[in-house]
Amino acid sequence: MNDCCGGCRTEIPTMLEVSDVVKEGKGQSSFFFRQKIECRPGQFIMVWLPGVDEKPMAISYHNKNEFAFTSQAIGKFTNALEKIKKGDKLGIRGPYGNSFSIQKNACVVAGGVGLSSVSTLIDSLKNPLVIYGARSKEHLIYLKRYKSKNMIITTDDRSLGREGFTTDVLEEVLKNKKNKINIVQTCGPEIMIKKVFDICQKYKVDCEASIERFMACGFGICGKCMVDDKIVCMDGPIFSSAQLSKMKEFGSTARLKSGRKVSLKEYHETA
Amino acid sequence: MLQTNLCNIRLKNPTILASGILGVTRESVERIGKNGAGAVTLKSLCHEERPGNRNPTMFGYDSVFLNAVGLPGQGIDSAMKDFGRLDNLSVPVIGSIYGYNVNQFGEVAAKMASLKPAMIEVDISCPHLDYGKPYHADPELTAKVTSIVKKNSGKIPVSIKLSPNVHDIKEIAHAAEKAGADAITAINTATGMVIDIDARRPVLANKTGGVSGPALKPIAVRCVYEIYETVKIPIIGTGGVTYGKDAIEMVMAGATGIGIGTGIFYRGIGVFKKVCDEMEQWMKKNKVKSLDEIRGCAHE
Q1: Which chain B residues contact residue A48 at CB under 8 A?
Q2: CA atoms within 13 A on the CB side of B287
């Protein structure tokens, strides 16, 4: 939807009709639009719910003439989205950001609704190993969608799959060199992502992580989403091992809407 | 060729990142500097922490850009710890400040001055909480704010950033100069609104916002032209500068510094270098050796 005619550039929401709403899990829904969109795995859109707010959302389904995003009801905006029905309209702009690389022998590690940020990547990869964890069975999404995939599921409460964390499984996988993992690609809570990155460093395997920060513009000018000198919406949201290893704020601090730097814990309590 | 002296600050070129675009962290300042800006203006800070408005806070179409970010900022006290000194970065830094009342302008100015920025810019476009009207719309209020900021800034030069949303910008500029301002930054955004006809409501959560981008340029050029005829202090011409030819036009209207903000939206962070290259090309072609030769030349 990015038009460019010389000196002009258009980045304004377009009201699109929701063609379908699919319940994915507890408080988790996918909103579909019958609209062609040019995008790459890992990119995001800005979703405007008039009168409420506008937030970044990963493109979670991408077909020839259709796309969707998946939301988890946790705040005012995402709770308001839960009331959106087929036929209602939402303002969409984008897609924005860079994308995951497509490589052989990839391992995708996702935590919670973070799976929606790597789902178009999984769709693009050839036989990836997916390690996917959530608090409990009812919070797992896309189980039917990925039933034919090579997927290891973990739940904190052991209601489905293995008990424990995705990162424990990842360590086992990387320890065994026979698995020949070439790259680990990940999205989820930043504490998990940081652990995934550390494990990759330990076993000398490349890593790409999609990270999240408060955003306003989505196109690299407001400065809300800065992590060190990186602008997450434009330089990211996906960063490589080489970049992550230089980012002091990655895994430790984030900036509030005001720009004040706080611990990740305080950031997540506010967000 | 483009070296510029602005209030005795030596700039390698006249382009200055305008306040409100990036300029939120030390690292972002360095990055803009590395990309060729002659100086960098920080996002405005006041006495308290503010989260700003809900989204949408900004968007653009054609040659129009609208924003209503609602002055988000960590507050001067937090910023003092976050930024530390401002005179040891690789590019001159202009600290932008504001307050809700006159005394707060003074307090924030004193704290900003302690960080040693190359210049202090004063955003007088916020409404005065005691009088209800914005400082920028009243010569007396502009003078009061200018005096107190000057008193609290020591030897650091002070520029007052004016708004085009006034009856007569000349009298405001005159009041600022008389009260001791060292420079004028002109202009801030012009107020505007965009309604989405499918959503049937304004796109900005704040409903109204500030128009910037190429659409603002003729308004900015007119303001700089009028201010140049009114005051002797230098002007930082800001508003819609996207290409080298826009910067030349600003200089011909009378600008010494050239603010660029929304230009980043159209041409990326590399806009500073691109504008400088284009200015030099124009100067070579037209046998102009220094910008001093053409500054204010549109006035006859």
Answers
A1: 55-56, 199, 203
A2: 0
Query: What's phi and psi for A171, nearest 5 deg?
Result: -60, -45
Instruction: Give the pLDDT band of residue B233 (cuts 50, 70, 90).
Output: very high
- CB spacing of B27 vs A229 below 8 angstroms: yes
- B57 contacts in chain A (CB < 8 Å): 216-217, 222
Provide the residue ranges of all domains of chain B, joining segments of one domain with +.
4-293
Q: Residue A3: which pLDDT band, with cuts at 50, 70 and 90? A: very low
Per-residue model confidence (pLDDT) at position A7: 59
Dmax over CA atoms of chain B, in Å, equals: 54
Any idea which residue has 């730097």 for tokens? A261
Q: Which residue is associated with the tokens 């489905």?
A: A160
Percent of the residues in chain B that have a pLDDT greater than 70, as a whole number = 98
- CATH number of the A106-270 domain: 3.40.50.80
Catalytic residue list contains B223 = no
Residue A228 C-alpha, separation from nearest chain B C-alpha, in angstroms: 6
| Global ipTM | 0.93
pLDDT at B157 over 50: yes
For residue B209, list chain A residues with Cβ-Cβ distance below 8 A: none
Give percent of chain A with pLDDT exceeding 70.
Answer: 97
Long-range contacts of the stretch B20-23 (C-beta < 8 A, 24+): B20/B44, B20/B67, B20/B69, B20/B261, B21/A221, B21/A222, B21/A223, B21/B261, B21/B262, B21/B264, B22/A221, B22/A222, B22/A223, B22/A226, B22/A231, B22/B264, B22/B269, B23/A223
Tell me if B23 and A223 make a contact (CB, 8 A cut-off). yes
Tell me what the mean pLDDT of segment A60-83 comes to. 96
Q: Choose, out of A222, A256, A266, the residue to mutate when testing the contact with B (most B CBs < 10 Å).
A: A222
Residues of A numbered 113-172 whose beta carbons fall under 8 angstroms of chain B's beta carbons: which are they? none
Q: Give the contacts of A220 (CB within 8 A, at least 6 positions apart).
A: A231, A233, A234, A235, B264, B268, B269
pLDDT in tens, A244-266: 999 999 999 999 999 999 999 99
What is the per-residue pLDDT across B179-199, written as a single tens digit (0 to 9) for each? 999 999 999 999 999 999 999
**Which residue of B35, B55, B81, B262 to mutate against A (max A Cβ within 10 Å)?**
B55
Average pLDDT over residues B270-280: 98
Chain A: give the shortest CA distance to residue B91, in Å. Answer: 15
Q: In 3D, which of B63, B21, B35, B90 has the Cα closest to residue B276?
A: B35
Contact: A53, B50; criterion CB under 8 Å: no
The ranges assigned to domains in chain A are 3-96, 106-270
Homologous superfamily assigned to A3-96 = Translation factors (2.40.30.10)
Confidence band of B288 (pLDDT split at 50, 70, 90): very high
For domain B4-293, say whether CATH 3.40.50.300 is its number: no
pLDDT of res. A5: 43
